[in-house]
Amino acid sequence: MASARLDKTLVTLTAPSSFAAEQYQGLRLKCEQHRRASDVRVMAITSPGAGDGKTMTSINLAGALALREAGDIGRILCWLTLPVDVDDASLARAVEADVDITAYTPERVDDIIAVGGSPRIQLKVDTGLSRGGSTLGHWPDLVAAARKAEIDGTIEVTGIWSHFACADEPEHLANDRQERAFREALDIADRVGLRPEVRHLANSAASILRPSSHFDLVRCGIAVYGLDPAPGHTGHVALRPAMTVRADLALSKRIAAGDGVSYGHTWVADHDTTVGVVPAGYGEGIPRHAANTAEVYAAGRRRPVRGRICMDQFVIDLDDDELEPGTDVVLFGTGAHGEPTAQDWAEACDTINYEIVTRIGGRFARRYVDSAPLDSAPLDSAPLDSAQGDDQ
Ligand SMILES: Cc1ncc(COP(=O)(O)O)c(C=O)c1O
């Protein structure tokens, strides 16, 4: 379903007037490793707004349709439908656009049948996350309804799937419980005659840490960004961050000992120093929690964030370096050149790397850079400014 589509990866994000960029070199790395290691297929998970024409799934029908409109010709799974999708004919458009649609209830199966065409559906069972999906109690009714529709020729059931709650904690007892429940759900489906093309349960962490949960396909989100889904547990896997966020320094200037910096003066210089202004703030998804904790990279060195993050800018300490406006500031990247990684930012902000990379937006523009073939020179050898590739 997915891996073949990861041979061209991606992404650099550039803001208007080269304000900033984001680079996803190596997006396919983990997926490719899986594909080579076994028969398991890989589905890349995209977050809303990150559609790039090369990914395989989307949270809702609007996102799925946006991926199609962006030119994605691969299989796309929509995992969550909303009441509005039935009302505004999105279901019908999704069937026409060849999107696989997940159903949690017999009623949604009926909604999908009602739009006509040749719908492909997948069934989701809740094995213990208590989020989307049919409870095990309702599962027999759902598979019976889907099988009946399949026999009638009104739908094709292409998948059965579920999602882990604690895959990033490999010792957590919920993992065994969920996998057992998934196998039970598959048996129930099998007994009514459903033979789906794909059965899938594993996210990034389980794809690395729990081979027994791979079934036919793994759904990788954060690992596709080259980030560690379970820090502390995955030391044996070489993931390479795929996304770089950068901005042009707006200005630098000297301040004196005793001067307070940014709103609230939460940082006060204890000696004369030079500060620089980076033109990105919480409006661009820079966490306010980065105040006085995170670092960026500019002119060959890490530079600490000083004071609060503002709506559209923040201040860094340049020490005695008066850098020219326009100097490249890397907020986070691969780490290969000394720049912080998204994981570093996550630790500085007391959150997870997922939140750091998915919240970047606002005036940042995305630019997608094809990465080198896996067998060629390591991507780490690419200069930082290789992110200045062609705008999309
Ligand atoms: C249903 C589902 N599958 C897979 C994923 C991917 O998870 P991860 O990023 O941990 O690989 C997510 C994450 O949002 C998800 O909600």
Q: Which H/E pattern describes the elements?
A: EEHEEHEHHEHEHEHEHEEEEEEEEEEHHE
Strand order of the largest sheet: 2-11-19-16-17-18-15-12
Tally of helical segments? 10
Small ligands present: pyridoxal-5'-phosphate
Supply the number of structural domains: 2
Termini gap: 25 Å
CATH superfamily of the largest domain: Alanine racemase
CATH architecture of the largest domain: Alpha-Beta Barrel
Radius of gyration over all CA atoms, rounded: 23 Å
Helix share, percent = 10-25%
pLDDT below 50 for ≥5 consecutive residues: which ranges? 1-30, 48-55, 371-392
Q: How confident overall, as mean pLDDT?
A: 82
What are the SSEs and their pairings?
Elements: E1 12-13, E2 20-21, H1 29-37, E3 41-44, E4 57-58, H2 61-69, E5 76-78, H3 83-87, H4 90-96, E6 99-103, H5 106-114, E7 120-124, H6 139-152, E8 156-161, H7 173-191, E9 198-200, H8 204-209, E10 217-220, E11 245-248, E12 251-255, E13 260-261, E14 267-268, E15 273-278, E16 295-298, E17 301-306, E18 314-319, E19 328-332, H9 342-348, H10 353-359, E20 366-367
Parallel strand pairs: 3-10, 4-5, 5-6, 6-7, 7-8, 8-9
Antiparallel strand pairs: 1-20, 2-11, 11-19, 12-15, 13-14, 15-18, 16-17, 16-19, 17-18
Helix pairs in contact: 2-4, 9-10
Residues 45, 79, 163, 203-205, 219-223, 229 line the site of pyridoxal-5'-phosphate (PLP).
